[in-house]
Amino acid sequence: MDISAASCLLTEEQFLCSICLDVFTDPVTTPCGHSFCKTCITEHWNISVLCQCPNCEEVFNTKPELQVNTFISEMAAQFRQSAQQKASSSSSEQQAAKPGEVPCDVCTGTKLKALKSCLVCLVSYCETHLKPHLTMAGLKRHQLIDPVENLEGRMCTKHDKLLELFCKTDQMCVCMLCSVSDHKTHDVVPLKEEYEGKKAELGKTEAETQQTIQKRRLKIEEIKRSVELSKEDADREIAGGVQVFSALKESVERSQAELIDTIKEKQRETEKQAEGFIKELEQEISELKKRSSEVEQLSRSEDHLHLLQSLPSLNAAPPTKDWTVVSVRPPSYEGTVRRAVNQLEETLSEQMKKLLSEAELERIQQYAVDVTLDPDTANPNLILSDDGKQVKYGDVKKNLSDNPKRFSLIPSVLAKQSFSSGRFYYKVQVKGKTEWDLGVARESINRKGNITQRPQKGYWTICLINESEYFAYTDPPVRLSLKSRPEKVGVFVDYEGGLVSFYDVDAAALIYSFTGCCFTEKLYPYFSPDPNYGGKNSAPLIITQ
To answer: Residue 310: enclosing H or E segment and its boundaries?
Structure first.
C-alpha cells in the first residue's frame, strides 16, 4: 500500500497536532509514542517546568532527542494536500463572511463565515475548522457559543482568565481568580445563573414594553378616532353654517328686492299722477289756443255787425281748473329703509333662531338612544304597552306590590335605561294631550307621596297644564311662551356639560334648557301622562324612534 492510499484510510484527527490543532509540520514522536509538530513540542517544553508529554503527561527525566518521523511527515503532507483540496471545495460551497458577520479566524485568504466561537481557545471557526472541536475528545469539553467578535473582551484583563462569574454586589462579570481576591466577600454567582435571571427580567420587560406599545397604539387609534369625530362635527357644523348663512343671504336679498320694489312703486304712482295732470293741462292749453285763434281772427274783422254778433259767444270762456291748488308732491322715503331693515332684522332673528335650532337638533339626534318604560317604577294607575313605548292613565288602580322603586301617588314612570356619563337624546309624542310632564330624574328621587319636581329634588322637567300653559319646573317655576303647540318633544342631556334641553321636534325650536346642572348620580328618563280628566287627557305618551 502506498502512502497516498494509507493516508486515505486514516482519520483526520490522526494528522492533527494536539498542540496547534493543525496538520503536522515536521512531525516528531516522543518516547511514549505520541506525535507533535517539532516546533510545537519544543516550545511547549521550553516554557514548562517539567518535561512531559502533553497528551499522556508521562514525565521524562531528560529531554528526549527528537527526530522528524519521515513516514508520518510524508503522510501528513499527503493529507494536507488532500485537506486543502477539500477545504477549497468546501469553501466554494460555504459562504464568505459578509460585512457585519463574524469571520473564521483560521481561514487564510477568503475568510469564511464562522459557525461557532470557542470560549477556551478564544477563536471563531468556520464549518471546516470547527470539526476538531466536534470530534476530538480533548476539544469536545471546550465551551462553544454562537459566533461573536472581540473574544478577547470575554477575558479578565487583570488575570487573563475567562469571565465566567457575575458579581451581584458590583454588577460586573469576573473570573475565578477575581471571585477569591477583589470580590471575595461579594455575592458571586455563575454567569449562566445571572444570565437566566436577567433573561427572565428582560422577558418581563419585553412583555411590559409590548403592553405599553399596545396601549400607545390604542391611544393613537383613540386620538385618530377623536380627530375623525372632530372632522365629522366640523363638516356637519360647516354644512349647517352654510345652510344658515345661505338662508340669511336669501332673506337679505329678498328684503332688498322688496325695498327696491316699494320705492319704485311709489315713484311709478307719482309719475302716473303727474302724467294725468300734464294731460289735463295740455288739454286746457289746446282749448285756450283755439279760443286765442278765434279772438285774433275776430279782432281783425272790419265787419261791424259780424264782430258785435260773434263777441258774446267768445266771452263765454271754456271751463278750466284752478291749478293754483294742484301740485305733485314727491313721495317721502324717510324711514323706508329703516322700516325695511327693522323688518328684516325681525325676520332674520326668527329665521336664524329656527335655522340654529334645526342645525342643533340635527346635531344632537346623533346621540339618540333606545328608551323603554320600566313597569317596576310605574304608578298603579298607569297602563304600559307591551313594547314599553307607550303609557297612559287608567281609571282603575291596579293591585301591585309597593316596591321602593314604584311611584305611589303621582302618575309617573321611569325608563329602564340609566345614564351616568356622555350625552343622550330621546323623543316623546305628546299629541292630543292636555297635560303631561317630561324630563329626567336622578336615581335617589323620592317616589312616595306628593312630589315637588325641582332640580334641588332631583327632577329636571317641563310640563303642560290646562291645555295651553307650559312651565319649566325651576324654583320657582318659569312660564314658557311657545309660538306653537308641540306634538313631539325631544329631550337632550349632556351629563358632563350639566345640560338638559327640550325641543319642539316638528318646529325645530328650543323650548327650554336647564344649564349649569351638577349630575353625580344615574339619570333616568321621566314620564308622567297625568290623569284622564274624564277622557279629556286620555291620549298616551309615546316614545318614538
So the answer is: helix 304-315
pLDDT 10s digits, 255-292: 899 889 988 998 999 999 999 999 999 998 988 888 88
Distance CA 44, CA 51 (A): 9
- Give residue limits of the domains in the chain: 1-91, 213-318+326-360, 368-544
pLDDT tens-digit profile of 81-140? Answer: 776 666 555 544 567 888 888 999 888 888 899 999 887 788 889 988 888 888 887 788
Measured CA to CA, the distance from residue 269 to residue 43 in angstroms comes to: 137
Strand partners, 67: none
For residue 466, the model assigns a pLDDT of 92
Model pTM above 0.85? no
Domain 368-544 in this protein, CATH class: mainly beta
From the CB of residue 223, how many other CB atoms can be counted at a distance below 10 Å?
10
Residue by residue, DSSP assigns 40-101 as HHHHHHHH-SS-B-TTT--B-SSPPPP-B-HHHHHHHHHHHHHHHHHHHHHHHHSPBPPTTS
Q: What is the pLDDT of residues 486-535, one digit of tens each?
A: 999 999 999 999 999 999 999 888 999 999 999 999 999 999 999 999 89
Listed residue (107, 104, 128) closest to 117, CA to CA: 104
**Nearest to 505, CA basis, from 493, 494, 492:** 492
By CB atoms closer than 10 A (0-12, 13-18, 19+), residue 107 is buried
Q: pLDDT category, 301, cuts 50, 70, 90?
A: confident
Is 3.30.40.10 the CATH number for 1-91?
yes
CB 395 within 8 A of CB 532: yes
Report phi then psi at 451, rounded to 5: -130, 135
Handedness of CA 395, 399, 405, 407 (dihedral sign): positive
